[in-house]
Predict the structure.
Amino acid sequence: MCGIVGLFLKDKSLAPQLGALLSDMLVTMTERGPDSAGIAIYTPEEPGRAKITVQSADPAADFAGLREALSAAIGTDVSVTEKTSHAVLGLASDKVEAARAALKSLRPNLRVMGSGESVEIYKEVGLPKDVVRRFSVAQMTGTHGIGHTRMATESAVTTLGAHPFSTGPDQCLVHNGSLSNHNNLRRELKRDGVTFETENDSEVAAAYLSHEMAGGKNLGEALESGLSDLDGFFTFVVGTRTGFGVVRDPIACKPAVMAETDQYVAFGSEYRALAGLPGIEKARVWEPEPATVYFWEH
């Protein structure tokens, strides 16, 4: 019984409020999962620049001298913005893969939470209110974002096991439910060269969608394919650099509610996650249908 939220802004004037709105939405879902929490926000882009969000169990050691060491290793300047156990590395877009490879030798204990031109991902063990406060999420600006508070059922309670899961550039997923065919699907994806950080079934779902999109599908098409290839109970909310998607399995036993206005599209496991949004009293509010893909794109 996890809690998931998502907010996709149509009205760019709301961008400075995205972090605060999404934080409040996630905190209302605390009772659905007290183990760990996380949030992904698609922040303003800088042409030619990308970001890598990393996490450390020992930030004092791992972040010390990281900028200089990584800049030297990849031959270009890297910025490092620390946020307690996480840091956002800013670098040239064409240096992301080189930087990820260099980090494995320079700081083997660092864990990459996600990378891309826009996305920043923060997740830790603990309650949503503590996680969003720790990383100052309420002060963040962006175009869309997703969040998750977890009640662990399939794997250990760890930072890596928390959602969102990011398995491709600017791609991330949050999941309520459990997959029954994740082990078989993991083996198939590994044969295609996909790597995994955890034993979490939700990471398999994220990797499946990334694999489908790498093959040329957009998010909506990848979610449609998932209805045939993913077995189990699931409600997914997924983000890409420009898109936002929702899908429920054919039985749709996991709760979900959506709202849409001229300003935004919002998702919550329960309506109370949406109740504080501006203009919600005039929104079109509905329960997403089973086995139906909902997809928006900027």
Residues 47-117 form a domain with the Alpha-Beta Plaits fold (CATH 3.30.70.3400). DSSP finds eight helices and 16 strands in the chain.
